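Q: I'm writing a short explainer about TatD family hydrolase for a general audience and would like to include a description of its predicted shape. Could you first generate the structure from this sequence?
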Amino acid sequence: MCGIHDLTEKDLQPLPYTPAYLDKIKGMRFFDPHVHMSARTTDDYQAMADAGVVALIEPAFWLGQPRTGIDTFRDYFSSLLGWERFRASQFGIKHYCTIGLNSKEANNEALAEAVMEILPQFIYKEGVVGVGEIGFDDQTPLEEKYYRAQLELAKEAGLPVQIHTPHRDKKRGTQRSMDIALEHGLPPHMIIVDHNNEETVKEVLDRGFWAAFTIYPFTKMGNERMVAIVQQYGSERIMVNSAADWGISDPLAVPKTAALMHESGIDLNDIHLVTYSNAVTAFAQSGQINEDDFNIAGNIDQREKFNGSTILRGGQQPRVDKNTTIIR
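A: Of course. Here's the predicted structure. Afterward I'll give you a sentence or two in plain language.
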């Protein structure tokens, strides 16, 4: 009988196992335009890099518990521009963000007013590719008030807008979101309407907006449904994201969906459009995205520090990429 004391360190190492879906996407590169990495671990960053994710966008969002003071927003926005960008770089992933007041916390009027005052300090910074995620949750008057105010902010800054559409009464909320954006003079090509489903996609595309889909287990959209949508509507102005956060979600949703599309016979060019280049095109309108930066991000030296801190804890050994042709 083998007891626990018979185990060696070698026995405790993970088995060398490569998920089957990785073979189907070998050589592909992915851009996840909506993922909340500050809620994820370094293991997630490594798995995303291994699966071909070269860049991502982290929208500012609700942290699961209401914030009570403006300084928590200030620190959160700063972390999206600083530590989280650094942390992604340590795994060869280029990190961008969108900055905004989320719809849920727009219902705290005093706090929302304070957030609106500091947003201009952040939206013009390097790496900010849009105002987001903003829009409706319960479709209240206060949500509409701050959605409109942030549309004006985006228009003034010349930035794309990343719209969060509501989970309840989604069709009406999506229509209102688009109607209001047009009222404020924002052209559809500057608006990414997120969290679409079968009920909303046709109108979003017909009206000329970008249609983003979130592959999120058991709630927003499964990737088999996503395959059917691409088969029906094609790949123009459609993009896929994971919106992985602190909930039950999957940061590998984009590469897994690409693998399923490939297995389902969808053309490789269409897969590339919905899992990479459409998102690049939409958010590059910010003037902040240069695809050459995705390659530079591959030069990894985990000995580097951000404000005196590294991602390495307790004597962990760094990964240093010695294959780069760049010498620093």
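A: For your explainer, you could say: Strands lie at 30-32, 53-59, 94-99, 128-135, 161-164, 191-194, 210-214, 238-241.
Q: Perfect, that's easy to follow.
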